[in-house]
Amino acid sequence: MSMDALDQLYREVILDHHRHPRGRHDIGRVDVEASGLNPSCGDEVTLQLQVENDRITDVAVIGRGCAVSTASGSILAELVKGHTVEEARQIAEIFKRMMHGEDPPAEADLGDLEALTGVRQFPVRIKCALLPWVTLLDAAVARAEGRTETTVTTE
Questions:
Q1: How many CB atoms are closer than 10 A to CB 137?
Q2: Which domain holds residue 52?
Q3: Rounded to whole angstroms, how far apart are CA atoms 50 and 81?
Q4: What CATH number has the domain bearing residue 51?
Q5: How many domains does the chain divide into?
Q6: What digits encode the pLDDT tens for the residues 54-96?
Q7: Sign (positive/negative) of CA torsion 96, 101, 105, 106?
Q8: pTM over 0.85
């Protein structure tokens, strides 16, 4: 597949997640909630996790923001459901490193998340893509510390 075709495919994935965001539903019981804000562009996200035996059984991603932030949150909702909190944290760390130019480990199954790597061409948009994932990392820390709510602001 040519680079142009790959870029077009990635754009289509991002637009699909932006137009039809996943995780926009009431999950009922919320075991941990984290809110994130990107003050430089105004993106806001609230991430709610339902966790049973340390496994994420449901995810809600509520917020408002640009297409990149919305798509990133939608991809997060699809990707981390069914994983343990630690596995989700590891995926978030891999994604953070990817957004800063590192290649993901060969064994990493990142699904649609790879579509966001094109955002690296636009440094101002990296924070948009990372906001839901940084919020997830904060939620994982809060859960480990026995807290049920937390807030993070990207700088």
A1: 19
A2: 3-153
A3: 9
A4: 3.90.1010.10
A5: 1
A6: 999 999 999 999 999 999 999 999 999 999 999 999 999 999 9
A7: positive
A8: yes
